[in-house]
Amino acid sequence: MKSLQLYKRIWNISVNYYSKAYFHLIIMVALALLSSFLNTSVPFLMKIIIDKTHEKKLYLDTTGIFTLNNLYTLVTIYASVWLFSKLLEWVQNISSLYLSNSFEVSLLSFGLQDFLSIKKYEIDKIDIGKFVSDVNRAANAFSATNTTIFLILIPTLIQTFFMCWYLYKNINILYSLCFTLFSIFIFLTSLYINKRNKKYLSPIYSSRNHVNSFFLQKVANAYDIKTSNAIEYETNIFKRILQENVKTSFYNQSKLGISLIFQVIIIFIFLLFFMLISAYLFSKNTLSSGDFILVSSYIIMLTTPFLMLSQQLTKLGANIVALSNFQIYLDMSKDQLSKEKLVDKDYFYQFKAAFLSFGEKKLKNFDFQFIKNKKYAIVGESGIGKTTLINHMLGLEKLEKGQLFYKNIDITQHFSSNIFKEIAFVGQKSTLFNGTLRDNLVYNANYAYTDEDLLFYIKELFLDSTLNNYNLDLNTQIDDVYKKFSGGECQRLNIIRALLRKPSLLILDEPTSALDEKTAKKMLDFISSHVKSIILVTHAKYCIEWVDEIIDLNLLLIDE
Questions:
Q1: Where is the ABC transporter domain (predicted)?
Q2: What CATH number does residue 108 fall under?
Q3: Is 493 in contact with 455 (CB distance < 8 Å)?
Q4: Do 28 and 118 fall within a single domain?
């Protein structure tokens, strides 16, 4: 029941991103229904043809060439039905690829959006390597689960139904009933084995996640590893992790393999039993030659989907585990943004009797207004919590007590999406994305800019030489190039991006940390010519002298 509820939850998420899912699935089920009917009709037509060949008078009656009693007509129909069934299988395969990719993409799209909505304190605890593995695995698992249900399970059930119906009509109800019951037994046995196999899947995933996490962590910290001469040290650790992964995977995959062999043996018994029964009935003249071919064909036809179904049900257990791991992220606390409208005030932020936690220190009964058209510097020793204060103002962290307003909106508990229309933030860690230089500059901006506009900003922030050094223009893809940019170059590109949003308030976290004093002062003057209200976190003396008011956390924080 929990697995069904989980699947339903993921399904509801997916169809919000894949709007035509129901329509496409109806088409797929209709194709499966028609394909199953045609596939089961082929052996039946062969039975009629064989029975016809055993009639005492076998001749070609040209006057009845288009009747079902004519052998040549039957052969033509048989070949045509076979052809259509194969063409239909090809259409199904192409459609299933589209369907699978659509479901996979829909879950990946949601996974990114959901992750970006997770509260900051939750994100800080997430292992990014594990998250990437879990999301990709869940997307593949959901796609594979739908394939199993709609392209294997449902067609197999429909095909089994048609087979039983043909057997009932051409042999007898007892034979058809036994065939049905044995088919149900195989299906239920596969479900039971699949349920027991789940305990072998979690260790495989956990071990693989550990490998991916370690790998991504070391790739991300390649510079530190190289400069510490720790390449051999790290690779030796990774080898041990990989060896453990191989052992864990082999042990648990062996257990899964044994259960699959058991299912194959059950299918073999099914095949042997009905073939022997059919041979016995044929020897007693209870079955005609055509009936024997019909039964044999149906049994052989079912063994392949039964084997596929057994394999897929085993994988289905793995898929459920993957979706369960993905559900952990779905259940994490999310940011709730209101749509409350802004009413203009003479200030941007106002703290009222606010209590903020900064590790072992506290800011108590903090009352302060960030007035419009002023420049503020938040200062204090390293690690004291300057960025933490900014995070409260950006809605990423919450007050312990008291209230925090942005103009008329109380953002103590819920931030408003409308605030982002007025503010821009540039953090300590400068971020550039794959794409063109233009894409990076106008990222999330709601204004149109000409090439001349963008080049003006680039020149004013002393980045024209960067473009020349790397032979770049606004339309150049910088996917690989930006990794060669200096910290100062990345920082200034991020500042241009913020300025192009035309904010009423600009919040900067250590904006001059990668710049020399002369360049930094010119940049600050340029920024203030475009934005009149600025809050910056800084250690630089010249920045402190540049602002109108200082918030010194060294003087405000007290020990807990």
A1: 342-558
A2: 1.20.1560.10
A3: no
A4: yes
